[in-house]
Amino acid sequence: MYGKGKGHKKQHYVPACYLKAWCDPACPAGHEPYVWIFDKDGSNPRRRAPSNTFTETDLYTIEKADGTRDLRLEQGLSELETHFTRIRNSRFKFRRDLSPEEHVYICVFLAAAQFRTPSSRTPKTRL
After folding, report:
1. Domain-by-domain residue ranges, the chain?
2. What pLDDT is recorded for position 115?
3. Over the Cα atoms of the chain, what is R_g?
4. Among residues of the chain, what percentage have pLDDT more than 90?
5. Please, which residues have CB within 8 angstroms of residue 96's CB and are 6 or more apart in sequence?
């Protein structure tokens, strides 16, 4: 959770686990899956791997006075994304009903996603 290391610097504001479901099904075998990214006006189409899309450096990292990096927010979001992926793959994909616990995880995932985007933050505010 803590450390001066450089790991976990690239943090997603649109979860990669969510983006993976939108990968182009025409991606050639042997290539890294990709999503299509466009400018706001629909121009300039380009392919990007979910791992390289919608990220900011240390978006959820809390830097302590002693230089250590507290990654509890990043790790908590990662855990939430793991639950979402499991539910998507076992329930949504097969149109199965959610358990009450799964329903809560989906609601929390959606609520977190709502506030992770740059437009939901004021210019000087970071999580």
Report:
1. 10-24+52-120
2. 87
3. 17
4. 78
5. 90
Q: E-strand spans in the chain?
A: 10-12, 35-37, 46-48, 55-57, 62-63, 69-70
* Class of residue 29 by CB neighbours under 10 A (exposed 0-12, middle 13-18, buried 19+): exposed
Residues constituting the chain:
127
- Predicted local distance difference test score (pLDDT) of residue 82: 96
Q: Reduced to 3 states, what is the DSSP secondary structure of residue 41?
A: coil
Tens digits of per-residue pLDDT, 24-67? Answer: 999 999 999 999 999 999 999 999 999 999 999 998 999 999 98
Alpha-carbon distance 124 to 59, whole Å?
12
For residues 53 and 16, is the Cβ–Cβ distance under 8 A? yes
Strand partners, 72: none
Closest CA to 49 of 10, 98, 82: 10
Reported pTM? 0.79
In whole angstroms, give the CA distance from residue 39 to residue 27. Answer: 21
Q: Which helix (H) or strand (E) holds 95?
A: none
Q: Using 50, 70 and 90 to split pLDDT, how confident is the model at 120?
A: confident
